[in-house]
Design goal:
Length: 136
């Protein structure tokens, strides 16, 4: 399990990898547009995770983690476009795609865990099945 600082480092590394990739893109209008979009979304992942770590409430943290999830998914989209448009050879993106997918999966897992913890606090120590007809 990754701690908060390790995940901050991981999301920053994702941003740095994208910065290096964008610097290597061919000089064309399309590569410039896609590169700017990718750069914006990928660097936003780490920035928003840091903001989530400073959240004032569970709801605030969940909201900011939701932004991390969206920005990571958007990063994956731009990476896929770069590969499928053949602006960047697909093998060059393999590790970056893998890293972004891992960050996305860990973010989603964190959101799910926090939602369960938050609902448990709200409901007391009892975990209730929302589909159940039995109420305590």
């Amino acid at each position: 399990m990754m701690n908060e600082q390790q995940f901050k480092d991981r999301t920053k590394q994702l941003g740095l990898q994208v910065i290096r990739l964008v610097e290597e893109l061919p000089k064309s209008y399309t590569a410039d547009v896609l590169g700017r979009q990718l750069l914006r979304s990928a660097t936003s992942v780490g920035a928003n995770y840091r903001a989530a770590c400073r959240g004032r409430s569970s709801a605030d943290v969940l909201n900011k983690l939701g932004i991390v999830e969206e920005e990571t998914d958007e990063t994956l989209y731009w990476l896929e476009l770069l590969a499928e448009s053949r602006l960047v050879p697909a093998p060059r993106l393999t590790d970056l795609l893998s890293d972004a997918n891992e960050v996305l999966a860990m973010t989603v897992a964190s959101i799910k865990t926090l939602r369960v913890r938050t609902s448990t606090l709200v409901l007391g120590s009892k975990i209730q099945n929302p589909k159940s007809k039995i109420r305590s």
